[in-house]
């Protein structure tokens, strides 16, 4: 198995030298690196979630600093941190619920005769664990030894210690397994984001409509082509997007896919907007206040669409949503 530090350093170099660009590619790289970090991370018996969170934060800060322009990197790091906290909370809640259920199912007389301190100890441990951030575990460790197995002999004490160690190791493995499974689902969402968005194309694009777009975006291409595959006939105007002229790249791709496409200058957008039924664009990032980071010239298109009351649609995957500025 490759060394995780070598993998992280290689990822940092790729981001710094911009060998990998674009929100989707950088998001995928980040999720894969964090999955490797989690799978190889040795976590202690106590504060397991805290150890994972510290490791992810350390790697995430390196990746973000390598190319701060790629906001999808920070988005994925925050998403993985959220997954770890949620899985830890879920496991702790399940442990508390199982303990409460077991205590309630026992007969009160048997409980008082065989385990006189179990109920009070369990409640006290559960209360302490729920008030201890960032990890909610330690329920088992906080229980007094008399509550688990009576110390009748030294062999009984040894078996109790082995049982505690086994429970801790089992919980540690389950936490890592659950987090890795959730990260795999995240990777699947990133890989299929274009297709998932494109499924909604027929709900927005209707027959004989005129669509205006700007810049180049894989999501927009798949969205428009999905509508065409559903036998929708429409025309696309593409603003050229000076000074990088990414609109020409998009127009060539759309023509190659069989769409009726016309390239217009940026200065002609306001004159053409009255003939347009809808503006459909991609975005580099979607901010918490509803704003978007997008290609140069999109603000002009948005103002023209607002002036003529033309619907304005922004296509973006979940990995482009920026809700926070820090980890």
Automatic annotation (TrEMBL):
Top-level taxonomic group: Eukaryota
Record field: compositional bias (Basic and acidic residues): 159-170
A cellular-component GO term for this protein: eukaryotic translation initiation factor 2B complex
Pfam families referenced in this protein's UniProt entry, alphabetically: IF-2B
Biased composition (Low complexity): 144-157
Localization of this protein: Cytoplasm, Cytosol
Region listing for Disordered, in residue ranges: 144-174
InterPro entries: eIF2B_beta_subunit, IF-2B-related, IF_2B-like_C, NagB/RpiA_transferase-like
Location, primary (coarse class): cytoplasm
A GO MF term: guanyl-nucleotide exchange factor activity
Keywords tagged on the record: Cytoplasm, Initiation factor, Protein biosynthesis
Quaternary organization: Component of the translation initiation factor 2B (eIF2B) complex which is a heterodecamer of two sets of five different subunits: alpha, beta, gamma, delta and epsilon. Subunits alpha, beta and delta comprise a regulatory subcomplex and subunits epsilon and gamma comprise a catalytic subcomplex. Within the complex, the hexameric regulatory complex resides at the center, with the two heterodimeric catalytic subcomplexes bound on opposite sides.
Record-stated family: Belongs to the eIF-2B alpha/beta/delta subunits family.
The protein's name in its UniProt record: Translation initiation factor eIF2B subunit beta
Species the sequence originates in: Escallonia herrerae
């Amino acid at each position: 198995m490759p060394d995780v530090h070598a993998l992280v350093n290689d990822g940092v170099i790729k981001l710094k030298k911009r060998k990998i660009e674009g929100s989707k590619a950088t998001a995928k790289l980040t999720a894969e690196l964090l999955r490797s970090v989690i799978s190889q991370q040795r976590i202690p018996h106590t504060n397991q979630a805290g150890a994972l969170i510290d490791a992810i934060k350390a790697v995430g800060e390196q990746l973000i600093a390598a190319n701060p322009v790629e906001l999808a990197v920070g988005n994925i790091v925050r998403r993985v941190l959220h997954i770890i906290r949620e899985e830890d909370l879920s496991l702790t809640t399940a442990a508390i619920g199982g303990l409460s259920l077991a205590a309630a199912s026992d007969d009160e007389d048997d409980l008082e005769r065989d385990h006189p301190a179990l109920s009070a100890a369990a409640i006290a441990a559960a209360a302490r664990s729920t008030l201890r951030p960032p990890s909610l575990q330690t329920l088992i460790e906080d229980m007094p030894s008399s509550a688990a197995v009576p110390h009748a002999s030294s062999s009984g004490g040894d078996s109790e210690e082995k049982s505690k160690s086994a429970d801790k190791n089992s919980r540690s493995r389950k936490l890592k397994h659950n987090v890795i499974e959730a990260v795999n689902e995240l990777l699947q969402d990133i890989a299929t984001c274009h297709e998932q968005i494109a499924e909604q194309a027929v709900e927005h694009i209707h027959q004989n409509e005129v669509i205006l777009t700007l810049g180049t975006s894989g999501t927009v291409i798949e969205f428009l082509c999905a509508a065409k595959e559903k036998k929708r006939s429409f025309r696309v105007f593409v603003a050229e997007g000076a000074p990088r002229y990414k609109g020409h790249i998009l127009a060539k791709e759309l023509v190659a896919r069989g769409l009726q496409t016309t390239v217009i200058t940026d200065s002609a957008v306001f004159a053409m907007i009255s003939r347009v039924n809808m503006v459909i664009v991609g975005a580099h990032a979607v901010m918490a206040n509803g704003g978007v980071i997008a290609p140069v010239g999109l603000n002009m298109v948005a103002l023209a669409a607002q002036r003529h009351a033309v619907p304005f649609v922004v296509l973006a995957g979940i990995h482009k949503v920026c809700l926070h500025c820090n980890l």
